[in-house]
């Protein structure tokens, strides 16, 4: 009964996580809160690690990637790692370094496209701005600079579509992302009421004119800086720099006539990020959870998957390999043990999957049509766009069969291109056995996506079983003997 209550609350917990995570920075911040509450200790990559068996830890990189792990009580250097990897980023519109745009009597905000978004879905939405800022604190010799998350709750920007009466004879709605995908902030007339904010000797970017390397050019509208400063509890001139993005203000909800769906932005991939994180927390929550565990249970949530993972905090970085190496070396100085540990390890690359669309059924291969409510989808691709093979898929299916969990298969049509995930990147970069999976969803990369409530529960249960039972199952599998 306790298990049923725990699982049934998962969709509600996911909704809370989604609503608190408009950006990758906020998602990592929420993850930190969950981990600390569950007894995980934060450590820093900049410091030495003093790790103990039976203990739980996490670290962040750039505050947009987080790696959490729990060390089995019977772990020894050279033993394996049981890992679920996902990503924290989603396609969005990020503010340009110089965002100030004025035309036609309007103040607009210059943005650049991040990832492969369905940009037409961003039109006529009530948008706001969120992200992180670097804030100057103190004066004179005691100046310091802090990293602060910011989110303006109310809708402040919008990208209006062109009326059909002014767009006759066009073949569908095609967006020029440079000239037409520009959010409106205010009219110039009304913005004049805010003009005193910029009359303090500072340019609008918050940097004094004599310190500005761009000849005193104003980078951002003073109105926008004032809104951000109010939210951050600082003065506009104390904003040194930022990474901000446009966000939808409509909250995530459980919906549908039968309350069977979740309507939300960023399901790809915060749904998998949350389910894996919650599974790790609950699979290590009791004192006896790690008593007989010989491996390390880990979740790695990376940034920049949507743009190729090639960054210091992406899956293409040494972040995960560094973690495996440092954990192993904390228990032995023998360098050869890391290679041994990697060959005993296993990665579940968890990224949302394409559900069959009832209005576009021809887009799926006829024998591989994942359905909502059908459980996690195992992704296969002969050209290694996914890292799944017979051994890794068997392990994942076996766990599902033992717990009576549904599982599905996906292969892209031969006449269509195939997307990819962090799976092949980590499999090739680290050398770890990998299976690519994901919960089925519709409207992927739209500003508003949808998935099924049941699949959130299935994902959580499957991931939890993976953490708890992989070591025992893997001991029975003989390959490369």
Describe this structure in words.
- Helix content is 26%, strand content 25%.
- The protein is an alpha/beta fold and 481 residues long.
- It has a nine-stranded mixed β-sheet with strand order 1-2-3-13-4-14-18-16-17, with helices on both faces.
Structure keywords:
481 residues, alpha/beta, nine-stranded mixed beta sheet, six-stranded antiparallel beta sheet, 11 helices, 20 strands, globular
Question: Outline of this structure?
Answer:
Strand 7 and strand 8 form a beta hairpin.
Layout of secondary structure:
Blueprint: H1 2-8, H2 10-19, H3 24-37, E1 41-42, E2 56-61, E3 65-71, E4 81-87, E5 92-103, E6 106-114, E7 127-137, E8 144-151, E9 184-187, H4 188-191, H5 222-232, E10 239-248, E11 253-255, E12 261-264, H6 267-282, E13 296-302, H7 319-329, H8 336-343, E14 346-350, E15 353-354, E16 376-379, H9 390-402, E17 407-410, H10 422-430, E18 433-438, E19 440-442, E20 449-452, H11 453-474
Parallel strand pairs: 1-2, 4-13, 4-14, 14-18, 15-19, 16-17
Antiparallel strand pairs: 2-3, 3-13, 5-6, 5-10, 6-9, 7-8, 7-10, 11-12, 12-20, 16-18, 19-20
Helix pairs in contact: 2-6, 3-6, 6-11, 7-8, 9-11
- Placed side by side, the strands forming the largest sheet appear as 1-2-3-13-4-14-18-16-17
What portion of the residues fall into strands of 2 or more residues? 15-25%
Q: Low-confidence parts lasting 5 or more residues at pLDDT below 50?
A: 197-217
Cα-based radius of gyration, to the nearest Å: 24 Å
Instruction: Give a quick account of the main beta sheet: strands, pairing sense, barrel closure.
Output: 9 strands, mixed
The end-to-end span amounts to 43 Å
Which overall shape is indicated by the principal axes computed on the Cα atoms?
globular
Class of secondary structure makeup: alpha/beta
Number of DSSP helices? Answer: 11
The mean pLDDT is 93
Number of strands: 20
Helix content: 25-40%
């Amino acid at each position: 009964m306790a298990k049923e209550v725990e699982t049934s609350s998962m969709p509600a917990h996911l909704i809370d996580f989604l609503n608190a995570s408009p950006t990758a920075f906020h998602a990592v911040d929420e993850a930190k809160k969950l981990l600390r509450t569950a007894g995980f200790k934060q450590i820093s990559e900049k410091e030495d690690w003093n790790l103990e068996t039976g203990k739980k830890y996490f670290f962040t990189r750039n505050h947009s990637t987080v790696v959490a792990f729990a060390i089995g009580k019977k772990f020894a250097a050279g033993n394996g790692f049981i890992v679920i990897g996902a990503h924290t980023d989603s396609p969005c519109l990020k503010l340009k370094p110089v965002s100030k745009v004025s035309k036609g009597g309007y103040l607009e905000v210059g943005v650049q496209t991040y990832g492969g978004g369905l940009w037409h879905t961003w039109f006529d939405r009530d948008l706001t701005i969120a992200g992180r800022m670097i804030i100057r604190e103190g004066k004179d010799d005691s100046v310091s600079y802090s990293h602060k998350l910011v989110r303006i709750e109310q809708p402040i920007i919008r990208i209006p579509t062109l009326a059909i009466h002014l767009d006759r004879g066009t073949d569908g709605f095609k967006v020029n992302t440079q000239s037409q995908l520009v959010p409106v902030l205010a009219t110039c007339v009304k913005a004049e009421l805010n003009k005193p904010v910029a009359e303090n000797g500072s340019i609008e970017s918050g940097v004094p004119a004599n310190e500005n390397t761009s000849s005193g050019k104003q980078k951002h509208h003073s109105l926008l800086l004032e809104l951000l400063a109010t939210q951050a509890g600082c003065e506009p001139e104390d904003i040194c720099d930022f990474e901000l993005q446009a966000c939808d203000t409509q909250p995530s909800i459980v919906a549908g006539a039968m309350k069977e769906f979740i309507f939300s932005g960023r399901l790809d991939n915060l749904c998998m990020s949350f389910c894996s994180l919650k599974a790790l927390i609950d699979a290590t929550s009791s004192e006896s959870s790690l008593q007989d565990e010989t491996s390390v249970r880990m979740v790695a949530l990376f940034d920049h998957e949507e743009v190729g993972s090639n960054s210091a905090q992406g899956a293409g970085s040494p972040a995960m390999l560094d973690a495996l190496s440092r954990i192993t070396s904390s228990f032995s100085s023998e360098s050869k043990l890391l290679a041994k540990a990697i060959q005993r390890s296993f990665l579940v690359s968890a990224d949302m999957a394409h559900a069959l669309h009832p209005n576009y059924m021809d887009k799926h291969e006829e024998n591989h049509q994942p359905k909502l409510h059908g459980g996690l989808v195992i992704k296969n691709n002969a050209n290694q766009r996914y890292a799944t093979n017979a051994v890794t898929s068997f392990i994942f299916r076996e766990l599902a069969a033992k717990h009576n969990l549904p599982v599905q298969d996906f292969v892209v049509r031969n006449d269509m291109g195939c997307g990819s995930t962090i799976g092949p990147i980590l499999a090739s970069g680290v050398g770890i056995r990998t299976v690519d999976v994901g919960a089925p969803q519709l409207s992927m990369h739209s500003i508003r996506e949808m998935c099924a409530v049941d699949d959130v529960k299935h994902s959580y249960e499957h991931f939890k079983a993976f953490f708890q039972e992989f070591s025992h199952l893997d001991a029975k599998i003989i390959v490369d003997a």
